[in-house]
């Protein structure tokens, strides 16, 4: 039987510099979330299937990785961390009445069709604010997204905000069957507004509603489009949605993040559990959103705790792709390579201990007398080492900056005699 030692389709190994970048980004983003008062939580990689059942409104059941435990229970790898957080909060914080601020990092698993060419395992880092339904809570989450992305070094990005009630009001005003509504929803998500008009023309739909759908592509941009959205809003729920977006924007100006905020009233949530504002963050260099989020005021009810909530997830793999293509360097820490011989081993260990006590990363490597220095330089460059300390038996150190090529010779002989 042939052994399959490579990774399955849709997953991959991450190592060396790329892995260091990923961990550095997680640390930077976690710092921002902690500054806002969010506390860490870890949930299991797999849950009982019921946590992601169809009624929850998460990923489609056919895209789940499902398996059985020894007792015959159906389990599923988590495709989305928010339902796991909701389940945990409903059980661990059942009687808590004050706001709960939680943040997390973990991998998600979605069994995409192979032709899509997308990763089936992604790392997400996010936050959930549970127990508050207010414009202040909405604004806090959006400000945190902007601050987090800026912390990673990203400069050119936009957080696009919509509202479920606005787009849902348009669908309800058509009086179409659910099947037709879903078809229209898919066309809008793909920005195929001509296809939307073709469908609407086949049915008896009020001219006012058709006109609202016709104007939908124009309801994307700055806060000025909210006035237009208010004028074509088909009902009270849609008008209240627009007004809420306006109030949120006023708070975002106080946060000082309005330059990274736009609106898109054609946006509909990627998950069925979204109920209020929804948002995605986009930048160039990646084909998908780097952040997805929204309000989900009824999700926790399905786990036994009736409370409003809002959250977001940063898709680290997409963010890393964007940063790489935009040539934005992520600082991962200064690694040093210390090369020594038998004769300088005691000195090398003493130096390494001293450096590590000061918080400096040192990798030690022993060389033979016939080894060339260039061999270790080449290793250091491909291993993302910043500088190499090459110990000589005459008590001198050749210090080579592997990033710039600069060299200097440090004489430690005199200092050693004094010691």
- Report the biggest beta sheet as strand number plus sense, adding barrel if it closes: 9 strands, mixed
List the strand order in the largest sheet: 1-5-6-12-11-10-7-9-8
Measure the end-to-end span.
64 Å
Note the total helix count.
Answer: 13
Shape: elongated
Beta content comes to: 15-25%
SSE ordering: HEEEEHEEHEHHHHEHHEEEEHEHEHEEEH
Q: Estimate percent helicity.
A: 25-40%
What is the average of the pLDDT values? 91
Strand tally:
17
Q: Structural class, judged by helices and strands? A: alpha+beta
List unreliable stretches of 5+ residues: none
- Write down the Rg: 27 Å
Characterization of this structure:
- The structure is a single chain.
- With about 425 residues, the protein is of the alpha+beta class.
- About 35% of the residues lie in helices and about 20% in strands.
- The strands form three sheets. It has a nine-stranded mixed beta sheet with strand order 1-5-6-12-11-10-7-9-8. Strands 14-13-15-16-17 form a five-stranded mixed beta sheet, with helices on both faces.
- Helix 11 (about 345-355) links the parallel strand 13 and strand 14.
- Helix 1 runs antiparallel to helix 3, helix 3 crosses helix 9 and helix 4 runs antiparallel to helix 9 (about 235-255).
- The longest helix is centred in the N-terminal third of the chain and has 20 residues, at about 15-35.
- About 35% of the residues are buried.
